[in-house]
Specification:
Elements lengths: L2 E9 L4 H16 L4 E9 L11 E2 H9 L3 H18 L10 E2 L3 H12 L3 H14 L7 H10 L4 H9 L4 H13 L7 E4 L3 E4 L4 H12 L6
Parallel strand pairs: 1-2
Antiparallel strand pairs: 1-5, 3-4, 5-6
Length: about 220
């Protein structure tokens, strides 16, 4: 009999390691599907909540935030590109020119979660930003992605034009911050067990099997 697990994947749309983490986690879940019955939810986290609507040049932003050199940024991009390729995701880092505010994307994701399409929309947002170089704060882009995953386009546009789910997203963000989540991706199993960072498939698989076989059960 498979062990039920509630898994919260806390991440931001503009986080490349979150892309790696989500793909690796899903592949690990596929490996343990005979042992684990997972209920996967995407949860909001903003890496740059004060980012203005127009965004910021990606190189400028990373140099200011992390003090990285151009050489370090190039090396990091190569590492991320390789990790993505291993997992079947195409990072085209050269298309990602700017970092944007992701709050509206998280409001849309909150709605998608209520409709059971949160993970699908998260994948669509990752692909739009990291593969196609699109702006995840642009409402036309967000509406198109919502429709692509089966959500109602008119409802999506109406939602984005208002402040719908703004307080809900902030409450969830604050909850995870108050519970020690200050970096992403963060995988939380049954509100108790934390796996931090964009780990390898084998790491997630091992943790899931260990929890499934624990005498206490997760």
């Amino acid at each position: 009999m498979s062990v039920p697990m509630k898994i919260d994947f806390v991440s931001d749309v503009s986080c490349p390691w979150c892309v790696v983490g989500l793909h690796a986690l899903e592949q690990a879940l596929e490996r343990v599907r005979d042992t684990v019955s997972a209920e996967l939810h995407v949860q909001p986290f903003e890496l740059n909540p004060q980012m203005p609507p127009a965004g910021q040049d990606i190189i400028e932003h990373l140099q200011q935030k992390y003090g990285s050199t151009v050489e370090q940024l190039a090396s990091n991009s190569e590492t991320i590109h390789a990790r993505g390729a291993e997992l079947g995701f195409e990072f085209r880092m050269e298309t990602r020119k700017r970092v944007y505010n992701t709050f509206d994307a998280h409001r849309l994701l909150h709605w998608a979660e209520l409709d059971g399409r949160g993970v699908a929309l998260k994948h669509a947002l990752f692909r739009a930003y990291f593969t196609d170089g699109e702006n995840p704060s642009d409402h036309d882009t967000l509406v198109r992605l919502a429709v692509e995953v089966g959500l109602d386009g008119d409802r999506a546009r109406s939602l984005l034009a208002s402040d719908t789910y703004a307080s809900d997203v902030r409450i969830v963000e604050r909850y995870f911050q108050e519970h020690g989540i200050h970096a992403v991706p963060a995988v939380i199993i049954n509100d108790r067990h934390l796996i931090s960072g964009g780990q390898a498939v084998e790491t997630y698989e091992g943790a899931l099997r260990q929890l499934a076989n624990s005498p206490e059960r997760p």
